[in-house]
């Protein structure tokens, strides 16, 4: 299929354009067709050539521009027309990015695929907030969980967080009450430190800290909106006071 284009599954990173990989930036700059998620920063899309076709397949809670199968089919159609297509995703394509599903459809259709990893939302946002997901004195295990998974109440979250562990929850803003209740029900201490990172790596980033039992109230009181990550574990409390002072001084 020499006249078939390639589907490039590209991670756009957590938001800040400076965190793109060199490979990702080069593909964006040369692509004639870019199919992108809604969370991709406009400054990243601005890197595209002026005649590039930008197709948004933005997903929001309870509203998708296109269902996932139709997105996969769209990518295959574009590639079969002979055009390379960049499928641009926030974070990393294979970490809650549905890149695996799109790659499978492409392989089944005989269309070549290349995956370009990106800095994940968890890594990027945590680093920007100066929260070490692992720490020799506080955490040797990290778990990534989707907060909007079906059957949330039926999941066994015992052991995902606690002493020596860090839990990072994607897409958990709307389900924060159920998450806190479920973790406490499964044995996690109500006074376990938590942090909520909103718009990680972007200029408007906020880092909100509290305790697990107060997570729902924290999210509601501060009117947290997506994109936001919830980080649970002792690492979120390390250096918190020093970072707060640093932020206050920077705001003066």
From TrEMBL:
Domain Tetrapyrrole methylase, residue spans: 6-215
For this chain's UniProt record, which GO biological process terms are given?
A: methylation
PROSITE patterns the record matches: SUMT_1 (PS00839), SUMT_2 (PS00840)
Its pathway, per UniProt, is: Porphyrin-containing compound metabolism; siroheme biosynthesis; precorrin-2 from uroporphyrinogen III: step 1/1
According to the record, the signal peptide region is none
**EC nos:** 2.1.1.107
Q: Domain of life here?
A: Bacteria
What are the UniProt keywords, alphabetically? Methyltransferase, Porphyrin biosynthesis, S-adenosyl-L-methionine, Transferase
**A Pfam family hit:** TP_methylase
Query: Any stretches that span the bilayer, and where are they?
Result: none
State whether keyword Oxidoreductase applies: no
> What is the enzyme's class at the highest EC level?
transferase
Query: Which family is it part of?
Result: Belongs to the precorrin methyltransferase family.
Q: Which PANTHER family match?
A: S-ADENOSYL-L-METHIONINE-DEPENDENT UROPORPHYRINOGEN III METHYLTRANSFERASE, CHLOROPLASTIC (PTHR45790:SF3), SIROHEME SYNTHASE-RELATED (PTHR45790)
What is the protein named? uroporphyrinogen-III C-methyltransferase
Gene name, Swiss-Prot/TrEMBL: cobA
């Amino acid at each position: 299929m020499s006249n078939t284009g390639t589907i490039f599954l590209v991670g756009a990173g957590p938001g800040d354009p400076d965190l793109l990989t060199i490979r990702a930036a080069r593909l964006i700059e040369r692509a004639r067709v870019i199919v992108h998620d809604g969370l991709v920063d406009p400054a990243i899309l601005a890197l595209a050539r002026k005649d590039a076709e930008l197709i948004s397949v933005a997903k929001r809670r309870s509203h998708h521009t296109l269902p996932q199968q139709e997105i996969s089919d769209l990518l295959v159609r574009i590639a079969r027309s002979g055009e390379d297509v960049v499928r641009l995703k926030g974070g990393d394509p294979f970490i809650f990015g549905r890149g695996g599903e799109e790659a499978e459809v492409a392989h089944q259709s005989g269309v070549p695929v290349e995956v370009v990893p990106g800095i994940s939302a968890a890594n990027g946002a945590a680093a920007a907030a100066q929260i070490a997901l692992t720490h020799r004195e506080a955490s040797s295990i990290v778990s990534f969980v989707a907060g909007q998974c079906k059957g949330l109440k039926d999941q066994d979250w015992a052991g995902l967080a606690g002493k020596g562990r860090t839990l990072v929850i994607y897409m958990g803003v709307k389900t924060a009450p159920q998450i806190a209740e479920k973790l406490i029900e499964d044995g996690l201490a109500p006074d376990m430190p938590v942090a909520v990172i909103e718009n990680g790596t972007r200029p408007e980033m906020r880092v909100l800290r509290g305790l697990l039992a107060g997570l729902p109230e924290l999210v509601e009181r501060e009117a947290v909106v997506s994109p936001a990550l919830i980080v649970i574990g002792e690492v979120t409390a390390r250096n918190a006071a020093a970072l707060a002072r640093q932020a206050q001084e920077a705001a003066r």
